[in-house]
């Protein structure tokens, strides 16, 4: 790895700021749903199974990138128009969620959170399509701006987490005595203190942030100062563009002592085997990180209490932008580094899955050390997954604009497989058991 301060006289801070705000709108809606789950599972009729339902609904949003790819092949159009539509859709969906999150509809004789699932689907269209649209759009800029966009994408998890920390969950569930008749045993009910402010306020804030992201993109797409930062010679409709090649110069030779005669900024192309391996790896990471882990997190964390679940969700979301911020200072990555970090993530993943499988009696339950280990495990795990995904993305970016589309495809395909696997295990097997405090 070669460290870099991440700042350069060749970059414009205004473009960096707009790229960050633009990236914030990519997954903010979906991350807002995930971070709010500690409150949603307490009132939804699906209870602890709600995350598995929502993960599947989110993956249905993959119809967005599929339709986008098909239409672009038949009749390419300017991708900026679709980005504006998606960010506007996300703002409206977040605002609607604020008013329908607790509404239910009877389906096949059982109450279901259908209105919530519909709005989540709208938010998922933004997130899923952003993987094959937002990142490739940023590929037309100089490579220094891709990292700042990805920092914004990481902030799409950080900002909802900050709001959620301010909101709180009220505390752990308490058992309240509701009946103590002489002819019947004592009866208890679970009571959870209310948060500082409600879910309606929370999603209204999310709507406002998405609106800011929309304005930032309009400026990024239209301002002449931003267009001057393009790195492509030709930009057509869709995400088709070619990068300007840099001819070797004597100044480059003088700066590169390790490989005289090679330009300083030239990145050697990786082998086809490594190329395919990295695509498979990012798909596997998304299978677990986007599809499987969110569905089982309630079973892993809720036996330790609402506070532990709340802190795990919020800190895990914060780990994403922290990983992106770290990548801002690490100028280059290697395949060897990516593989090493992937192996390092395995024991944390095993512990997270173990606590979920052992529910309702996971290790060190009702012990402070158990809470600490759980929160630390999930936070480090999601941080590693986020950083590895970012490292793969930035490494493959140099293979050309269409490569970022394939990265998005691998991301969404892995997420889809993970969500279907977790939904089946959670809802149709006895692998995961719910914990009842009373």
UniProtKB/TrEMBL annotation:
<dbReference type="Pfam" id="PF06237">
    <property type="entry name" value="SLC52_ribofla_tr"/>
</dbReference>
<feature type="transmembrane region" description="Helical">
    <location>
        <begin position="201"/>
        <end position="220"/>
    </location>
</feature>
<feature type="transmembrane region" description="Helical">
    <location>
        <begin position="275"/>
        <end position="296"/>
    </location>
</feature>
<keyword id="KW-0813">Transport</keyword>
<dbReference type="InterPro" id="IPR009357">
    <property type="entry name" value="Riboflavin_transptr"/>
</dbReference>
<keyword id="KW-1133">Transmembrane helix</keyword>
<comment type="function">
    <text>Plasma membrane transporter mediating the uptake by cells of the water soluble vitamin B2/riboflavin that plays a key role in biochemical oxidation-reduction reactions of the carbohydrate, lipid, and amino acid metabolism.</text>
</comment>
<feature type="transmembrane region" description="Helical">
    <location>
        <begin position="308"/>
        <end position="330"/>
    </location>
</feature>
<feature type="transmembrane region" description="Helical">
    <location>
        <begin position="80"/>
        <end position="101"/>
    </location>
</feature>
<feature type="transmembrane region" description="Helical">
    <location>
        <begin position="372"/>
        <end position="392"/>
    </location>
</feature>
<feature type="transmembrane region" description="Helical">
    <location>
        <begin position="12"/>
        <end position="30"/>
    </location>
</feature>
<keyword id="KW-0472">Membrane</keyword>
<dbReference type="GO" id="GO:0005886">
    <property type="term" value="C:plasma membrane"/>
</dbReference>
<protein>
    <recommendedName>
        <fullName>Riboflavin transporter</fullName>
    </recommendedName>
</protein>
<keyword id="KW-0812">Transmembrane</keyword>
<dbReference type="GO" id="GO:0032217">
    <property type="term" value="F:riboflavin transmembrane transporter activity"/>
</dbReference>
<feature type="transmembrane region" description="Helical">
    <location>
        <begin position="50"/>
        <end position="68"/>
    </location>
</feature>
<feature type="transmembrane region" description="Helical">
    <location>
        <begin position="404"/>
        <end position="426"/>
    </location>
</feature>
<feature type="transmembrane region" description="Helical">
    <location>
        <begin position="113"/>
        <end position="134"/>
    </location>
</feature>
<feature type="region of interest" description="Disordered">
    <location>
        <begin position="244"/>
        <end position="266"/>
    </location>
</feature>
<feature type="transmembrane region" description="Helical">
    <location>
        <begin position="337"/>
        <end position="360"/>
    </location>
</feature>
<keyword id="KW-1003">Cell membrane</keyword>
<comment type="similarity">
    <text>Belongs to the riboflavin transporter family.</text>
</comment>
<feature type="transmembrane region" description="Helical">
    <location>
        <begin position="146"/>
        <end position="166"/>
    </location>
</feature>
<feature type="compositionally biased region" description="Basic and acidic residues">
    <location>
        <begin position="249"/>
        <end position="259"/>
    </location>
</feature>
